[in-house]
Design a protein that fits this description.
The complex is a heterodimer of chains A (about 325) and B (about 300). By secondary structure, chain A is mainly alpha-helical. Chain A has two domains: about 70 residues, no CATH class; about 240 residues, MetI-like (MetI-like fold), CATH 1.10.3720. Helices cover about 75% and strands about 0% of the residues of chain A. Chain A has 13 helices and no strands. In chain A, helix 11 packs antiparallel against helix 13. Chain A is globular, with a radius of gyration of 24 Å. Chain A starts with a helix and ends in a 7-residue tail after the last helix. Chain B has about 300 residues and is mainly α. In chain B, helix 4 runs antiparallel to helix 9, helix 6 packs across helix 7 and helix 9 packs antiparallel against helix 11. Chain B is globular, with a radius of gyration of 24 Å. The chains are: A mainly alpha (about 325), B mainly alpha (about 300).
Chain lengths: ~325, ~300
């Protein structure tokens, strides 16, 4: 199979998977014990009112007709109306999405900047003290309850020492920059508001680290493992034998091959950052997708739940797809199938 | 005397018959002894199990007993880890919470593991259309991040401990299916499988007697690591209010209850969270260690 066939196959598969995702989110929200109409109108609503609402929302139709209706609307970009915010879900998603992207991207930058060097040092100094320390650091990272880490850092850096600002994206005293991309750091740079830029960065630091710690741990682990694999190979021994300094061998010869698996893992982890974002955003009052999701889930706001799950599944699948294709490009030795 | 002799003879024969298995166990034990981190993980997991079983015998207080005059009391000799907003002893609640986390993890992993294992075996062994169907369904379930799908299920079913388990189990089986399928495909064309088939063993018998035992090692590693993952997800659901409900002494719920007192009464959230971290770390250390051990054994 050549690369093009592979990509086409994967895209077809993606469409199929997204169709399945739609069906699952429909089933979850329609075939379940919780009654959405009752949830909207409250337990004291008179039966006539419930009946009327049911009709209005289309809940009285047979299930398969509802499913077809739903698929039809989604294909036309209509995700329904949120019962909580009383706006179209798609408008809500557009509004909350940039904050999550800003947070997740910063988290990923932190994770890459920390994770790769930790992995390299750990591999080069295998079984020395620094290796043990960094392995423990990674293991703690994958075992850490994100929400708890967030609280503890808030406790230390905000409540106790006041070094970093508390929840939110900006201090309430600072007027937000005009909305261009929705990413406050970038918007404030574009409009030349450096006070807002610095403040937004300070606000980003803690939540991004909390969110990025897991990714840091994963990246450090995979970098260590693949670096060890590469360092065992003959061409590395040759490089040493011809008298190159260790620094050159590692940075120029070994790292390039060792980073291939790391690249894949970075892509895969970016998707899973959305998962951590749900918890991180709750703690840091970050007005993003995760917090919107939590709110709708707790409110049993079905259109919103379906919209959020769908969007997250799309991002997640797309990032996996991009990773797989990138992998095939980066490493000509890979056979796909 | 005769009895003793025959017993010792039998024992020797037993040792002789099981020589390879015993050597294998010795090898595993030697490898285990060499890694302090694996030992630490084992100790954490075993103490957790003991704690969960015997907690009523040594918990200092009842986990639900309220003492309103003593609410939010800092750690003291009476309440080693302090009390929460209703004056309940935090240490006792954490100790009892070990039961909840462990039960969730065991039940979820057992369900997810057996479902995934059976589907993966079928898929890898028979291949063809069946394989295609099972794998595409697996793909769909893997398209969601686990916590998000579990949240959707928990919201739909209504938040409770039982629904937490259902929600996490529904989202956990695909990994096992993929693992089992991959290893089954690797060995399904081996000679010994063919030999079993040629003497008339049924597909079912081949799958469970000849394939299953050979693919178990990676599954066991995954299950151990997953125990930690399930505990984390369950605690996350509890924290955002979609999991266990108060007054259940579930660790995620406890962290959540303490967050409103964070600035002044730090102990309410801190200790339950620490319990989650240590427990999950224990399972991850053990899982990592098991993987290394199985790797070495495979290579021999």
């Amino acid at each position: 199979m050549d690369l093009r066939t592979y990509i086409v196959r994967r895209l077809l598969l993606l469409i199929f998977v997204l169709f399945g995702v739609l069906i699952i989110s429909f089933v979850v929200s329609h075939v379940v014990p919780a009654d959405p109409v009752q949830a909207i109108l409250g337990p004291q609503a008179p039966p006539e009112a419930i009946e009327r609402a049911r009709e209005q929302l289309g809940f009285n139709k047979p299930l398969h007709e509802q499913l077809i209706d739903y698929l039809w609307r989604v294909l036309h970009g209509d995700l329904g109306k949120s019962l909580r915010t009383n706006r179209p879900v798609i408008v809500d998603l557009k509004e909350f999405f940039p904050a999550t992207i800003e947070l997740a991207t910063t988290a990923m930058i932190i994770a890459i900047v920390l994770g790769i060097p930790i992995g390299i040092i750990s591999a080069v100094k295998k079984d020395e003290a620094i290796d043990h320390v960094s392995r423990l650091f990674s293991l703690v990272g994958v075992s850490m309850p994100v929400f708890w880490l967030g609280l503890i850092l808030l406790l230390i850096f905000y409540y106790r020492f006041g070094i970093l600002p508390g929840p939110g994206r900006l201090d309430p005293t600072i007027p937000p920059p005009p909305k261009i991309t929705g990413l406050i750091t970038i918007d404030s740079l574009i409009s030349g508001r450096f006070d807002a830029f610095i403040n937004a960065l300070k606000h980003l630091l803690m939540p991004a680290f909390v969110l990025g710690y897991y990714a840091t741990a994963i990246i450090a682990r995979i970098t260590r493992a693949s670096m060890l694999e590469v360092l065992r190979q003959d061409y590395i021994r040759t490089a040493y034998a011809k008298g190159l300094r260790e620094r050159v061998v590692i940075m120029r010869h070994a790292l390039r091959n060792a980073l291939i698996p790391t690249t894949t893992v970075i892509g895969l982890t970016y998707g899973s950052l959305l998962e951590g974002a749900v918890l991180t955003e709750t703690i840091f009052a970050w007005p993003g997708l995760g917090r919107y999701a939590t709110g709708s889930f707790l409110f049993v706001d079905f259109s919103a739940i379906m919209g959020v799950t769908l969007l997250i599944a799309v991002i997640y699948s797309l990032s996996n797809l991009i990773v797989d294709i990138l992998y095939a490009f980066l490493d000509p030795r890979i056979r796909y199938g | 005397m005769k009895l003793l002799e025959s017993l010792s003879k039998r024992y020797k024969r037993f040792l002789e018959e099981r020589r390879y298995q015993i050597e294998d166990m010795k090898l595993i034990f030697d490898l285990w002894k060499k890694s302090p981190l694996t030992m630490l993980g084992t100790v954490i997991v075993i103490s957790l199990i003991f704690m969960a079983i015997f907690v009523p015998w040594f918990a200092p207080h009842d986990p639900l007993e309220q003492d309103v005059y003593n609410r939010l009391a800092p750690p003291s000799s009476e309440h080693l880890l302090g009390t929460d907003q209703l004056g309940r002893d935090i240490l006792s609640r954490i100790l009892y919470g070990s039961r909840i986390s462990l039960v969730i993890a065991i039940i979820v992993v057992a369900i997810a593991c057996s479902t995934g294992l059976i589907l993966g075996l079928l898929s890898g062994y028979f291949g063809g259309v069946l394989d295609e169907i099972i794998m595409r369904v697996t793909d769909i379930f893997l398209a969601f991040p686990r916590l998000v799908l579990a949240m959707a299920f928990a919201a739909a079913l209504g938040p409770s401990l039982l629904n937490t388990m259902i929600a996490i189990a529904v989202t956990s089986w695909p990994v096992y299916a993929r693992l089992a399928r991959a290893s089954t495909m690797q060995i399904r064309n081996e000679f010994y499988i063919e030999a079993a088939r040629s003497i008339g063993a049924s597909d079912l018998r081949i799958m469970f007697r000849h394939v299953l035992p050979m693919i178990l090692a990676p599954i066991v590693v995954q299950a151990t690591l997953d125990m930690g993952g399930v505990i984390l997800t369950a605690a996350g659901l509890g924290f955002i209010g979609l999991g266990a409900q108060p007054p259940t002494p579930e660790w995620g719920v406890m962290v959540s209850e303490g967050r409103y007192y964070l600035s002044s009464q730090w102990w309410v959230s801190t200790f339950p969270g620490l319990a989650i971290l240590i427990t999950v770390l224990g399972f991850n250390l053990l899982g990592d260690g098991l993987r290394d051990i199985f790797d070495v054994r495979m290579r021999r």
